[in-house]
Fold this protein.
Amino acid sequence: MKKYLSIALCATMILGTLSGCTTKKPAPGTSSTPETSTKIDLSVKPELKMLMPYVPFDPKADSTAIYLEEATGYKVQYDMLPSEDSQTKLNAIIASKTEYDIIVLAKPDFDNTVETGAYMDLDSLIPTYASDLQSKTEKGLWTNVTIDGKIKGVPEGLASENYGLTYRVRMDLLKKAGIETMPSTPDELYTALKAVKDQLKIIPLTSSYAVIPEIASAFGMYNKFNLVDNKIVYQAEVAGAKDYVTFMNKLFKDGLLDNEYAQNTGEVMREKFFTSKAAIYQMAWWNEPTATNTIKEKAPTAEVAYLPGLKDANGVSGLPMGRGVNRISVIPKASKNKEHALNYMNIKVGEEIFKKSVMGEENVHYKALGDGKFEPILPKFFDDKNNSHYFLTGSDTKAYSDFWAQTRVKKDPILFQEFTAIQDTASKSTYHYDPTTYMQPNKQYSESIGKVNKLVEDAFKQFITGTKPMTEWDAFIAELNATGLTDLNKIVNDWWTAEGANLADSMIKK
């Protein structure tokens, strides 16, 4: 984090009173002006007023809210944005300077409103009142909320880093076609798909996405934006992008990729796979356990596995891994309790309170299995803790990822089994993160990225199906640049020049 505050906390706690008044060493890119904070009695806790996203339940009656009030000593009034047209309501609240102490925003809402200037700069407050929250939040996430050198909110990361959409393989069908091992390179995949087509007369691979990550792996195209030699490169301009499209076009021309590829829907693809009319199809782990149960019902002898990231000529494979901000908690300038708001958020990430707020009580809501493993006690866990994530205002990033994977995913044994199998398969590749998931809000970027992504999705499918010949590739790149990619490349690379030194070492995970 460019503005990550490596500041020594100097505070004195006397009779519950916290004061900070010494000069602090500024973090890179922050003001060198000494910051001071007025003496605040944190033992006298005011009622805090929070504005939250809409949910179809009463937050104050939830068991997590009740526990947090007891554990933190803060009584909280929860107000919600409406279920429809919430942006209009949020804009009205900001314009009227309605007094809230904390507003919890989805990232797009933060991006759309931070320029109003309604949110407090937290640089001088966080080291004093939220140092635990600062250190327990994954460092790069702070970059998302640091605008012009000022921290404008507290980021909450995605619940867990996990590989979600994957390609499920009927290994029993591949073996029936004479393929005994899972393909690991483009050539091996081509051979396997051709054997399925020739021997079994079924669809070898059904899909609907322009980019299949497991195949794109072999061509160095991992994300929308990729870090290549310390430069951010858009997927269509990665060196192997044209070769990827050419390979996919060969699969389509040779009848190895579903001839309904461009029109497929999820339901259609599932039906083809479940009825043994296709050997490989795309799925998400959250479709479990329905998918496994259906396979067992319709093809009891089916042997199911997952397609790995294919290796390139150097034996290297890589897959995209999602990461970034889920929600952002801001403190409006209208708040009279800014120190208490941060203190409340900081108390909530204390080890014991955080664990109990998100997982509940041991031997009531979950069992500890040792070695950092847990399992939920059902149905008690979901009866009481199903909504616990709603009350996060920042989190212990690593701990929450572990808690989430060990409890919420275990609500069904088959779900957890397949989730684990998918993660194990994906983990054999190097994970690549899209660097722009850390980027601050940028209006021009937001206006252009949708158009550029849509043009790529459509053009890739046209190249793959042959409706656009590969001879038009250079013209496509020119059109892409004219549509906004030239501007996007400048935006993201200017940003990376400023931020990259602090983020580069966290862009891949082996």
Remarks:
- The chain is about 40% helix and 15% strand.
